[in-house]
Specification:
Blueprint: H1 3-22, H2 29-52, H3 56-74, H4 81-98, H5 100-122, H6 125-131, H7 134-141, H8 146-149, H9 156-177, H10 183-205, H11 209-242, H12 249-281, H13 288-315
Helix pairs in contact: 1-2, 1-3, 2-3, 4-12, 4-13, 5-10, 5-11, 9-10, 9-11, 9-12, 10-11, 11-12, 11-13, 12-13
């Protein structure tokens, strides 16, 4: 496509669309019809330029024109409680459900790695000595040691807020950094499993594995599930760059990226619950079975939420992406 000829042929239409958009008075019927027609043609022009002769300056101008015209044609829409309800009952659980083939294997492999690391550390004293001196290890693992007092070292509310912030940041990083082919996600995931494996190994070597599990499981079931969901989704986002499927790479990355941003918000809510459990339930005086039971109930509730509400919404076509009305227009470039 000869870009100069194309611009010369359609410049008058773009200028007319710009003039209509700048009108301060209300458009009459004929002008409104003309605005819609020019918007549709300009959107087609933008799609042709992007696919055939991508010129940054022209693409920028047309993109701005199309965005302004689209806003004028469709009107602005403010968020409402209906949007929040739809997100919580359809968008978020459907996005988690759709990515289950990524985060479930991620959870299984990561858990196996943490167990293997824990076994290796717990059965090899020389590895333990490389982690810390024997006196420090005793202070960590003894009854009333640092592993136990960690959860009650700060006021419950402040501790829960700190834990929530740290975990939400880790989940968001997994989702955002997935675009780098998922490699940073693997490192974040390994660090989490290494920390878990070290605690598992050191406490098991001290004969106090039951105490360790009683401290970790109440909040850890839901917390780790959220981390696995974030990591699996980040890996899926990275794979989208390699294999976008029938979509173009740009469209696929935009769709999956928008869904991932929504999942970051949803997972922050899930991690808020696990943070509250870690701050108020884990260090409480409840018997171990009761604390673990609360963690199991929270985990089962989340999985039920994902598989019942999310599965139903996904089968109805929900993807977790924005509504069609809120996405940029997609115009075919050829008949």
């Amino acid at each position: 496509m000869d870009l100069d000829v194309f611009v010369s042929a359609h410049r008058a239409e773009w200028d007319r669309l710009d003039a209509l958009l700048r009108r301060r008075r209300r458009l009459d019927g004929a002008e409104a019809d003309e605005l819609v027609a020019l918007y549709q043609r300009t959107a087609t022009h933008l799609s042709l330029v992007q696919s055939s002769a991508p010129d940054p300056q022209l693409t920028g101008r047309l993109s701005q024109l199309v965005a302004r015209a689209r806003s004028a044609v469709t009107g602005t829409r403010s968020a409402s409680w209906r949007d929040v309800t739809r997100f919580l009952t359809q968008g978020f659980p459907a996005a988690v459900y759709r990515t289950r083939r990524w985060w479930i294997p991620t959870a299984l492999v990561s858990t196996a790695i943490a167990i293997l690391l824990g076994w290796w550390i717990g059965s090899h004293p020389e590895v333990q000595s490389s982690i810390a001196a024997s006196g420090d290890l005793r202070r960590l693992t003894r009854p009333g040691g640092e592993y136990e007092t960690y959860y009650s070292s700060h006021p419950a509310a402040a501790f829960a807020a700190q834990v929530w912030t740290n975990n939400a940041e880790a989940a968001a990083l997994c989702l955002v950094l997935g675009v780098f082919l998922g490699l940073p996600v693997l490192w974040i995931l390994f660090e989490n499993m290494l920390n878990l494996g070290v605690g598992f190994g050191l406490m098991s070597s001290a004969g106090r594995l039951d105490t360790f599990l009683g401290l970790v499981l109440p909040h850890g079931l839901l917390e780790l599930t959220a981390v696995f969901v974030a990591a699996g989704t980040g890996l899926r986002l990275g794979w989208t760059l390699i294999d976008p499927g029938p979509r173009t790479r740009r469209v696929a990355l935009a769709e999956e990226g928008r869904a991932a941003v929504g999942m970051a918000i949803g997972l922050a809510l899930v991690l808020f619950v696990s943070g509250a459990i870690e701050g108020f339930v884990t260090p409480s005086g409840l018997p171990t079975w009761a604390r673990i039971g609360i963690g199991v109930v929270a985990e089962v509730a989340f999985l039920t939420y994902v598989y019942v509400l999310g599965g139903r919404a996904a089968r109805a076509g929900e993807t977790g992406d924005l509504d069609a009305a809120d996405r940029s227009s997609s115009v075919p470039t050829a008949a």
